Amino acid sequence: MYFSDFGHIFVYNNTDQNITELQNILSSGVYKTFTTGNVYQFLQYAKELSPDIMIFNLDDSKKYSEETSESFNKQINFTNFPLILTKPHTQKFSLHPRVAHYIHLPLEIAKLRDIIESYCLGNKNHQILLLSEYHTKYDKLRRSLDLGGYTYFEVHNPDAAEIYLQKNHPQTVFVEYTPKLLTARHNLQHNRIFYVDRDQDITEIEKFLN
Asked: How far is 74 from 57, CA to CA, in rounded Å?
């Protein structure tokens, strides 16, 4: 185990062939990592040691995934640090309010790398922090951001958004206007926060992104 000041990362099920590229990131010598295939050990150690990030990887085995997810969902409410759930791109996610990011591997490995660097290293300087509910539809808002060439960091848990802002300094914070996220704006420390809708473009707030 390599000791580093940059970030402590816990990984569940780091042996699955689905996350070979993640193993390459973690073996770079930049981060301190703890890995295990025992879900109970994983959660107990996390309670005691409070890592910067938890990565919970589920493999292609349907039975394995269902049993592990059930155990995980019963115990994960204690977390106060970003939780990343990863699955093969062939599987759908079961949503949980404590999950900050849902990543399909290996397709979204670049996105996962950006997430790890943002929480552990910081100073990524994304133009936008986007706090939203998780959905798979490529909506008008994201299409507008992509066409405009803007960089944004999307997160689905308000606590993780607060943690992100401690190390990173986006120009603007977007909060999706949904019942679950309405109060989140009041807990985020930033001088430019806007409510947004997934079906809108960014014309009326684009002046704050330059």
From this structure: 17
Interval 173-195: pLDDT, tens:
999 999 989 888 888 999 999 99
Q: What is the sign, positive or negative, of the torsion defined by CA atoms of 15, 20, 24, 30?
A: negative
User: Is 121 exposed, middle or buried, given 0-12, 13-18 or 19+ CB atoms closer than 10 A?
Assistant: middle
Q: Which residues of the chain have pLDDT under 50?
A: 1-4, 63-64
pLDDT of residue 177: 93
Burial 56-95 (b: 16+ CB within 10 A, else e): bbbbeeeeebeebbeebeeebeebebbbbbbbbeeeebbe
Q: Kindly report whether the peptide bond that precedes residue 106 is cis, defined as omega within 30 degrees of 0.
A: yes
